[in-house]
Specification:
Layout (H helix, E strand, L loop, with lengths): L3 H35 L4 H24 L7 H32 L4 H24 L1
Length: 134
């Protein structure tokens, strides 16, 4: 007889692992974004740098931890990496648009705007990641 936790993990383990990795990725993105903007780097460039580094982390963590993708051949990693970064590029467009509207047009609080932005990005990225690794 399976234990309830084992049953739940086998059913929702991928989503749980994705949420944990997504939380870490979001943390990396937000910390880098605010660190860079505090160094007087404009929000647009701070966001691009934070995006590149957090997406690189997300690619590795999603491949290995979330979706248990074992194929590490050069060809597969390049193919998956290109797909991952391309689809995440679509969420970067949403990310940039939300920041532009929230920070430039509405003069909103950078923290609130960035957190709203990250919620939207996480939802988009989950769907994109399932297309690549699942």
């Amino acid at each position: 007889m399976e234990k309830p936790i084992t049953t739940l993990y086998s059913k929702y383990g991928t989503a749980l692992r994705y949420l944990i990795v997504g939380g870490l990725t979001t943390g990396i993105n937000v910390v880098l974004f605010f660190g860079l903007t505090h160094l007087a780097i404009p929000w647009f460039w701070a966001n691009i740098i934070a995006w590149v580094l957090s997406v690189l982390f997300a690619f590795i963590a999603n491949k290995k931890v979330v979706f248990n993708s074992a194929d590490m051949t050069f060809r597969t990693v390049i193919k998956e990496g290109a797909s991952f970064f391309t689809l995440r590029g679509a969420s970067l467009l949403a990310d940039t648009a939300i920041l532009f509207i929230g920070l430039t047009l509405m003069h909103g609080s950078p923290l609130i705007v960035k957190l709203i932005d990250q919620v939207v990005v996480i939802v988009l990225n989950y769907g994109f990641s399932k297309l690549i690794f699942a």
